[in-house]
Write a structure and sequence with these properties.
mainly beta, Pnp Oxidase, Chain A, seven-stranded antiparallel sheet
């Protein structure tokens, strides 16, 4: 059998984002590290979300999502709201600075450098997760700064991964 050291996954570069969507009158969002630009023409983005998360269901139903790029200085309490609480139990947007974008979905401004609104063009079932791809409908810059990376979140902020994150099983390895 080939060698598999899961610590190798920690050397991959990821960002930290809030992916948001909404059902009528129910904004929701979650922390995600699996987001990336996939093409330039047309400008497309992909995100990968656990099927147990409400945000994944919202995107399945609406075909729309937003990605807010978090800045390095974001406090752990803010990450905790979007990363460790369920939108089925709490309104994650209560008291949060956000706007409703051109696609009528919530875009988090607080602790965000920039944001994208995306129309889903495809999805791929990955078992526990769904990979969504979509065309960027709008892109905004809120401020200059350093984006939060997954490495900074774990190594500097000493953050953990929630049970629905792909890296949850590796929490005790650090």
């Amino acid at each position: 059998m080939a060698e598999f050291n899961p610590k190798a996954l920690f050397s991959m570069s990821y960002g930290m984002y809030i992916v948001s969507s909404c059902l009528p009158e129910k904004p929701n969002g979650q922390i995600a590290n699996a987001a990336m630009q996939t093409t330039a023409e047309p400008a497309t983005i992909a995100v990968c979300l656990n099927k147990e998360n409400l945000t994944e269901s919202c995107i399945q139903e609406t075909g729309l999502f937003a990605i807010s790029v978090l800045q390095e200085e974001v406090p752990m309490t803010f990450i905790g709201t979007f990363g460790f609480k369920s939108g089925r139990d709490v309104n994650k947007f209560e008291g949060v600075d956000y706007i409703t974008g051109d696609l009528n979905i919530p875009i988090v401004r607080e602790w965000s450098l920039s944001a994208f609104e995306v129309k889903v063009t495809g999805s791929l079932d990955l078992g526990t997760h769904t990979l969504f791809t979509g065309e960027i409908a709008s892109a905004r810059v809120f401020k200059d700064g350093v984006p939060l990376t997954y490495a900074n979140y774990h190594l500097v902020k000493r953050g953990k991964s929630p049970k629905t994150a792909p890296t949850f099983a590796f929490n005790n390895m650090k």
